Request: fold
Amino acid sequence: MDEDIHDEDSKELNEGEVKLIILEFIKQNNIGPVIANSLKSAVQLEGEMITIELTNPVEVDGIEKIRADLLGFIRKRFQNKGIQLQHHVNIEKAAERPYTPKEKFEAMLKENPLLGKLRDTFGLDTDY
Reply:
């Protein structure tokens, strides 16, 4: 039965390759920034199941709209009709994700404290 869903030249799934193919899909399709950002979220592989981890229930509708096209694109690239695609909403990760300019700057400041010195030296307004 597996022989029916796998092409002879099918490629083995790996997380890095899946992410690259998703980025290629984003570039080739006009899907909008929200859906594109959702697709850049964490990707998990378990066998032939690809799970995209979302951080917001609102992202689900956007992903569902492009799901069939994305799945077809991935299957074609890997030459494997057995690949499945699902999504999972992780609300806990949403709290970690900065949205406002101030939250984004604070997150960057945690990564690189010298940004605070740069802001102070040049009198930059980060709360635009």
Observations:
- The chain has two domains: 2-95, 98-128.
- The CA atoms of residues 54 and 60 lie 8 Å apart.
